[in-house]
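_Full entry_
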Amino acid sequence: MTIGVMFGFAFFALPSLYLLREILRAMQSRSWPVTIGEIIKSSVERDLKPGLSGEPQHYAAVEYAYEVDGQRFTSNHIRFGAWLNPLDTDMRLVVATYPVGKRVVVRHHPAQPQIATLETRVSAFLWGMLVICVGMAGLIAHRALTGSW
C-alpha cells in the first residue's frame, strides 16, 4: 500500500467519521431533555476572511441562553452540521426565524448540558457528503486491497 493510497483513504475516511458523528448527534438530540431558552443575539455578520470566491462571507450570528438545573448556559449552535453548508440557508431567514427575545425550545445533552441545539433535522447535504466520502474511501480501499479499480 503506497503513501498516496493511505493519504487518499484518510482524506475521505476521517471526514466520514465526523459527518457520521454529526448525523448521529442530530438524531440523538431528538430524545434529549428540553428546556426553554431565549435568543439573546441575532444578526447577519460578516466574516473577516474572504470565501473561496474571494468575496466576503456572511453568517447568521444567533446566540441563546438557557438554564439546566439552575445553571445558565449560552450557545450559538442551531443545527448539527449546519456550518458545513453555509449556502444551505439564507442567513436573513435564520435571523428572522430567531429574533432577539424569542423564547425557543432548547434540546441539551443529558450528561453535558453545554452541548445544545435548537433544531434536530439532518440536511440532505450532510447525508450526501457522507455517501460521497464513504464511497470514495471504499473505492480507495478496494484499490489498495485488489490492485485494480
